[in-house]
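To: structure subgroup
Subject: Chain for Friday's discussion

All,

I'm putting the inputs and outputs inline so they're searchable in the archive.
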Amino acid sequence: MKQLPVEEIFGEDYYIEHQALFQTPLFRASLSGDIDNDKLAEEIYKLREENPESINHSNEGGWHSPGYIGEKMNPIFKPVIEGITKVVKDLPFTPKIDKISELAVWSIINKKGDWNQPHQHPDCDMSGVYYVKVPKGDCGNIKFWDPRESLQYGNRFVLERYNGGESTERYPVEGDLWLFPSAFKHSVLPSKVDEDRICVSFNLSF
C-alpha cells in the first residue's frame, strides 16, 4: 500500500499527525517550449473549415471537433501526443505508467459566451487538456468539483472550513497541459473576451 505524506502539526499541547486521505490528483506541466502553438492553432482552424458542424457533448456554444483515435488519429495532434507521452511516464503512480494503450483527442474553439457544462469522461483512466491559444482576460477558467459527494450533502463544516468549498478553479495558460482522473467532474466557465480560446482535450487509457 502506498504511503502518503504526513504533515506534522505541533500544537500548543499535543503533536498532531495530519493525514490527507483519498486525495484527487491534478497535474500541470508546461509544454510551451516543445510545441509551435501558432502553427497548431492555424491547423485547428483549418480543421474547423473541413468540419464546420460542431460535435455536441458538454459544450454550450463554441466548436467541438470530431474525436480522433488509433489509426484515425489526425497528424496535427502529434506534438501534443508526444508531450503527453513524456509527461505521464513521470507521474507518481505505482507502478509507473510505461505506455498508453489508447488515446482519444479532439479540439475545441470557444468564443465569447461559450462554456462547458459540468461533466466527466467515462470509459478511460485519465483525461486532460492542452491550451493552444489563450487570449488575455477572462477567457473561461476550468472548474473542478469535489468528487466526494458525501461531504457536499452531509458534512458542510469540513467542506467549507477545510476544503474551502465544493469546487475550485484553475486559469488557462498557453502551453500548459493539465491531467486528471477521468471521473473528476469539471466544467469550463463562460469566456468574457472577444478572441477565441483554443484547446486540445484528450482521454487516456493505460
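Points worth raising on Friday:
The radius of gyration is 19 Å.
The mean pLDDT is 93.

D.
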